[in-house]
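During the first year of the project, the team set up a workflow for recording each protein of interest as an amino acid sequence followed immediately by a discrete structure-token representation. This format lets reviewers and collaborators read both layers of information side by side without switching files. As required by the reporting guidelines, we include two representative entries from the current panel. The first entry is reproduced here exactly as it appears in our internal archive.
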Amino acid sequence: MRNLIQAMLLAGMVLLSGCVEEVVTMDQPAPSLAAVALDGESVAWGDYANTVKYLVFWSSSCGACMDAMPVLEALAIENPDTLIIIAINIDTDLDSLAELVKQTKLTFPVLQDQLGITQERYRVIGTPTAFVIDKEGIVRDAFQGMMSHRALRQFIRSTINKYS
């Protein structure tokens, strides 16, 4: 058993050694997503083409994150053709996350980053952390920390106007 684990780790390291490190940089293409949808399906930026993307990293234990979810949901509903909210959860319990999304009735994509790869690519050190990605997939803005509901609405509306 131990040899199998060692062999798997070695194979993983060999595979990863050929990977190019992706790091978020303003005014450059957004690093790829290594998070998955709640149904386990992988996702890519191409799944959200031709719209402004508000990418937010969050945790269910983050009060500010949970407080912002209804505002983000309303903004997603108000702007279906110009904005996609993509919420990447950094918690490790997928079952609890699925239940939370069901209870809060979130309709925008909620992704799971159990391995922390996407967090690392985006240099997330706390939640909430958000990025604005334009229609062409270029990172245009970043914000860390809590915003009032009013400030969040204004920020996202100005983002839509600026990058649509």
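The second entry, processed by the same pipeline in the following quarter, appears below.
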Amino acid sequence: MGAGREDREYSLDHGPHGIADLDRMPRDARYELVNGWIVMSPWPGMRHDYVVKKLVRILDSAIESAGTDLYVNGPVDMYTVRGLRVPDIAVADWASVRQGLEDDERAHSPHSIKLVIEVISRNSGSERTDRYEKAVEYAASGVQEYWVVDTHPTVNITRYALASGYLTYHRLERVFAGAVFKSETPVPIEFDPAVLLEA
């Protein structure tokens, strides 16, 4: 006897899947669509969430100070060349966000995204994905900059940018707490990574 449709409805073991299948998943975890397969990640812990909120505030303040037409939020749904990812933070072009709101889009287009940030969640199994798989995927999707934030052994940020003429990243720097992290893309910003864990 074959499995009934209802038996497959929330199964990760059958595929390939599409956006409609992703949207039917329960809200008990974070789900992404990669090459037709639904990938589940557990909800991150308190430290991860705290760092994300701090970074969103820092970026929002920098955007406001610079008077640039950008939008920052996180987590967000974003289409990629392989499906749909849910980065911890994304900075997007506000005109594209406005158009997406008017059109009631399901997710952000990668062409509107200027920066994606992932915060490593230790013991979640996502570190390899964030450092390698997503770096390849975000670059191939045309996202200009990618930052990976790690809180161990001390807070540090690794910054990647698209190589000129290629859809691949090269590593620009890795900055640890106690030093100054600087970037001009997508907005001028300067801070010590240590502030991300300060109360």
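For the second entry, the following points were noted during internal review. Residues 1-10 have pLDDT under 50 and may be disordered. Helices lie at 5-8, 19-23, 46-66, 94-102, 127-140. Both points are flagged for discussion at the upcoming steering committee meeting.
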